[in-house]
Design goal:
alpha+beta, 16% strand, rod-shaped, binds adenosine-5'-diphosphate
């Protein structure tokens, strides 16, 4: 592993977490082992002491019953059968002079003289004598016999210490692989668990270098990190949509303003070159004002569409009575319809209400009615209907106009699209784009059914408020 990635590895949360957990694990294991070891060793010690005491009692009653002879007999039996854990036995007279002594040959290296010291005659406590050239000791219990003699029995601690050493070895043999598995496994699991974070870092890095389409791969686990990734990707999606929409708007503006701006400039230049009297200048100025109003309208509509599409449009939602909104819009378009002798048939239930921004809803209806009047020949009919289903409020604007061909239908919602037949009529090609964007911003949808020569039917669907 190169030095830099090794440094990075050591700095990683996964590795540090694994180290911390391993440290805590080792400490707790050591504590647990020490406790277990302490209890085990004290109970072994107690067992040894109990066995020595028992033997001492047994031997002293034997001595009292049958004297030296029965003691010697017992010792012979002892020698013969209890090779595994032999006892040390000593009998001393009143002056602590050894009368009788037996001990296994392995223990020959302990200092018997220490037992013959006068002060040890009265010793009723445990005596502990080191066995030379070994790490073991001899544990000896003493008892005073009724005749004043001293009987001592003992055992080496070798057996106990061997068992404890075995216990220690087993612990080490278990704990070392456990620690290795803990550190390696912990690091691996830590790395796996933090993979989504590393993916997040990679994605942020690539977004910051300009790759807006980068996304963090989802873990599909439904945990907190997966949720975070979902929200982060959603945020990126939104930012990308905003940027694309802004770019699209700029392109459209640049493209669509070129013609009116050229016209504006042409008008002013012509007036300057050929204009001889104030009347001509005035005419040119009126033309310039008209063009600038046209440019302003394009800019405003494009901005509105952009805001609605990106979710930046501020909507003052309320439960509005649709017949009131429709009444206002019809006041404006009624005259134009009358001029063309077009009849408008209205069927809106009084209680029909929509959860919408009143002025935006009015704008949507105005655009659709404007189109209906524009693209319906004289003496035609327009139907404005509203109905409610269990989940949607549906508004329909139907006309008996020129209709739209199947090839054109998918394009009519695009920005700046104008149908072939609509070219001679006034318009920007932005009305339906705004309708769709505003309705979508209300979480609604639009569709259209049309047949060339027979008419079109535009439907707006608003979700019913719960
Ligand atoms: P425009 O300013 O051209 O009306 P719109 O975005 O409102 O722009 O409409 C896009 C195109 O959809 C129109 O140019 C026209 O071809 C078609 N269209 C829209 N409404 C109707 C309608 N009611 N009847 C027939 N064609 C329509």
């Amino acid at each position: 592993m190169p030095l830099r990635s090794l440094k990075g590895f050591r700095k990683s949360i996964g590795f540090r977490l694994a180290l911390w957990y391993s440290g805590i694990f080792i400490l707790s294991s050591l504590l647990l082992f020490s406790l277990a070891f302490f209890h085990f060793s004290s109970s072994l010690k107690q067992q040894d002491k109990d066995a020595i005491q028992l033997k001492l009692k047994e031997l002293s009653s034997l001595f009292q019953e049958g004297g030296m002879a029965s003691l010697e007999k017992e010792v012979t039996v002892e020698k013969k059968f209890e090779k595994q854990s032999p006892f040390f036995i000593r009998l001393a007279d009143k002056r602590n002079k050894t009368l009788f002594l037996i001990f296994p040959y392995q223990w020959a290296d302990f200092d018997i003289k220490q037992l013959e010291r006068p002060d040890s005659i009265t010793a009723s406590e445990w005596i502990r004598l080191p066995i030379r050239y070994t790490k073991h000791n001899m544990e000896i219990a003493s008892a005073k016999l009724p005749n004043g003699y001293l009987l001592q029995t003992g055992r080496s601690t070798e057996r106990r210490e061997r068992t404890l050493m075995h216990f220690r070895k087993i612990f080490v043999a278990i704990i070392i692989p456990l620690i290795i598995v803990g550190v390696v496994g912990g690091t691996f699991l830590g790395f796996r668990a933090l993979k989504p974070i590393r993916n997040l870092i990679d994605t942020i890095r690539s977004v910051s270098t300009g790759r807006m389409d980068s996304r963090v791969p989802s873990t599909h686990t439904g945990d907190e990190l997966d949720l975070l990734i979902g929200f982060f990707n959603g945020m990126l999606e939104k930012i990308e949509t905003l940027i694309v929409a802004m770019k699209g708007s700029l392109d459209n503006i640049a493209h669509d303003l070129r013609t009116p701006m050229t016209r504006l400039r042409g008008m002013a230049e012509r007036a300057l070159q050929s204009g001889q009297n104030p009347g001509e200048y005035k005419e040119a100025l009126v033309g310039c004002i008209e063009e600038s109003v046209h440019i302003q309208t394009i800019l405003k509509t494009l901005m509105d569409i952009s805001e609605a599409e990106t979710g930046a449009m501020k909507l003052n939602l309320e439960e509005v009575s649709f017949s009131v909104i429709a009444g206002r819009v019809l006041d404006m378009y009624g005259f134009v319809a009358e001029e063309k002798a077009i009849q408008i048939h209205i069927s809106i239930p009084d209680e029909f209400r929509v959860n919408a921004d009143p002025s935006r809803l009015g704008q949507v209806l105005a655009n659709l009615l404007d189109n209906a009047v524009k693209y319906t020949p004289k003496k035609g009919h327009i139907y404005l209907e509203a109905k409610q289903t269990s989940s949607e409020n549906i508004i329909t604007i139907k006309d008996t106009g020129i209709g739209i061909s199947q090839q054109e239908l998918p394009k009519i919602w695009d920005r700046l699209y104008r149908g072939d037949q609509s070219r001679p009529k006034r318009g920007l090609g932005l009305g339906l784009s705004l309708v769709k964007a505003v309705v979508n911003a209300h979480k609604g949808r639009v569709d259209v059914f049309s047949e060339p020569g027979k008419g079109s039917s535009f439907n707006i669907y608003f979700p019913t408020s719960k």
